[in-house]
Design a protein that fits this description.
With 344 residues, the protein is α+β, with helices and mostly antiparallel strands. The chain contains eleven helices and eleven strands. The protein has a five-stranded mixed sheet. Strands 4-5-6 form a three-stranded antiparallel sheet, with no helix packed on it. The protein has a three-stranded antiparallel sheet with strand order 9-10-11. Helix 6 packs antiparallel against helix 10. The longest helix has 35 residues.
């Protein structure tokens, strides 16, 4: 069951259970530390199989009723506090190597490990995009910080070696940025797909689709196709002298009149171009796209903390036990015996 409540911008006292308003219902939740998952109470009773969303963010996800989820409620109700450092002393196993291999196999097969692989893969995609964005901005900022180099962009008394190198690097970095931007869109849908039949799948698809349909995203996607299948667009530049006689600013832009000759722009991308007039100011465009990527990325990773809480809890328990075994009791600790693992 999905429960939605609203706290911002205006609190709504009526919760919605699977979209149906539930006036008069008492809702309470807790997120204790060192717990596999949070606790939700409806009219004072324990709730199971519940995803609690507050202002569009997943804050608690309680698995369906099982001996494992019941034991979490039993342990964390009242004032009881777990002492995770209390455990039996190390005892040398009969077959040290077999124990190590068994824990490694458990780690590899655990839901938490699979979730970590999915999310680390998406994080790497985001990181590639951020690196490409940083590289492009560094080139632009470098010109603005170096008046002599900026003047090389407009001089005509020497071989244009510096200018050609700047424009070559600009082509490279713009092409890299467009390619990594397209990957984010596809990889976001692929990530959400790993959680079928969940409230996160429904909400995640909405977020990814909203990102995909943004005019700036539509244009970036088609720009990637334009660069790959037609040509690298010529990026023009203007060098402006400041009123103080010392400051020099370089701006880069792409003529929309040239881009529009390609007949494969989708309607939102074409409208986006037309809204910007005769040229697209490169810095403003990439910053607008960056803001959209950051918004999507922040939302996804905010949900992951709760979404995979149970799996990551048991993964940490297994990793602690692996370190405990590998170092013969010097590091880590044995897994907790308070909760029955979800797989049993």
């Amino acid at each position: 069951m999905r429960i939605d409540i609203t706290e911002e911008p205006k609190p709504d006292p009526v919760a919605r259970f699977d979209g149906v308003p539930q006036p008069g219902r008492d809702l309470e939740w807790r997120t204790p530390e060192n717990a596999p998952h949070g606790l939700v109470y409806i009219d004072g009773a324990r709730a199971f199989g519940v995803d609690l969303w507050v202002d569009g963010s997943l804050v608690v996800s309680v698995p369906h009723r099982s001996s494992a989820s019941i034991s979490v409620y039993d342990t964390f109700e009242g004032t009881y506090a777990r002492d995770v450092e209390t455990h039996a002393p190390w005892v040398e196993p009969d077959d040290f190597g077999a124990d190590i291999r068994a824990i490694q196999a458990e780690i590899s097969a655990s839901p938490g490990h699979q979730a970590r692989l999915w999310w680390s893969s998406f994080r790497r995609t985001i990181d590639v995009y951020f690196r490409n964005h940083t590289d492009l901005r560094a080139l632009i900022n470098g010109l603005n910080a170096n008046p002599e180099l900026a003047l090389e962009m407009v001089q005509n008394v020497r071989e244009p070696t510096a200018r050609e190198e700047v424009l070559a690097q600009l082509d490279q970095r713009l092409m890299n940025l467009a390619a990594s931007a397209a990957a984010i869109e596809d990889h976001a849908f692929a990530l959400v797909k790993q959680y079928p039949s969940s409230s996160f799948k429904i909400e995640g698809d909405k977020q990814a689709l909203a990102f995909k349909n943004l005019p700036v995203t539509k244009f970036m996607r088609d720009l990637r196709n334009y660069v790959v299948h037609r040509e690298i667009p010529f990026v023009g530049y203007n060098v402006h002298g400041g009123s103080d006689g010392h400051t020099i600013t370089t701006t880069f832009s792409i003529k929309t009149t040239h881009l529009e000759k390609w007949g494969k722009w989708n309607a939102p991308a074409r409208s986006y171009m037309q809204s910007l007039g005769e040229s697209i100011e490169l810095e403003a465009f990439v910053e607008a796209h960056l803001a959209a990527v950051v918004s999507l990325s922040d939302w996804l990773f905010e949900q992951q903390r709760v979404l995979d809480g149970v799996g990551m809890f048991w993964l940490r328990e297994l990793e602690n036990e692996y370190n405990w075994t590998l170092t013969r009791g010097r590091k880590g600790r044995p897994r907790t015996q308070e909760f029955i693992p979800p797989s049993t």
